[in-house]
Amino acid sequence: xxxxxxxxxxxxxxxxxxxxxxxxxxxxxxxxxxxxxxxxxxxxxxxxxxxxxxxxxxxxxxxxxxxxxxxxxxxxxxxxxxxxxxxxxxxxxxxxxxxxxxxxxxxxxxxxxxxxxxxxxxxxxxxxxxxxxxxxxxxxxxxxxxxxxxxxxxxxxxxxxxxxxxxxxxxxxxxxxxxxxxxxxxxxxxxxxxxxxxxxxxxxxxxxxxxxxxxxxxxxxxxxxxxxxxxxxxxxxxxxxxxx
Length: 244
Hints:
Blueprint: H1 2-16, H2 20-53, H3 59-69, H4 74-85, H5 97-102, H6 110-134, H7 138-146, H8 151-161, H9 163-178, H10 182-188, H11 198-207, H12 211-243
Helix pairs in contact: 1-12, 2-6, 2-9, 3-6, 4-6, 4-10, 6-9, 6-10, 7-8, 9-12, 11-12
């Protein structure tokens, strides 16, 4: 138990001791995960709505693919992104200048980390959103159409009705990337001051035998996750009470 107590003390020192390096790692972690989540929402919510609200040939296969994507191993995602954007990858050999010149420069940068996290979080946002939209009675959309609502208005009405499920989708997407280490380590390189985030810092300190520091960073990461997830939970609960 002593090691856990020392880790707690270490976490307090890191968080309130004015350590610039720790604050930089925390800020970068939130920036990467926040931007990744925003992009995943912009993709996943509309796609989830379309799949959840429409009936078409091959829908079951698409849902199965989305559900499979929800369990993608992050290290595999990191490997695929690494291969695609590396100088010896297929995009670097492409004839289009935007691929052959720009893509190889992404390796070991924040944008590469964002790309990997978007791939991880988008299926989570999409899958939970389509389940939430699918639970909305079809009569609601039919009534909206009969009243002359446009496609966009119908979508907003449906998403408003399913908003607590959509919020759960956002929380799931955030949870899937804030604690992710394999993909960001592979494409980001864990470079100090540039691409080092909390999870990769924990991995590094553990490998060096600094278990107290690693656990301290872990406590901070769990605390940040708790605060953000608690915010989602309180928003859902307060909304439910308001509706009742």
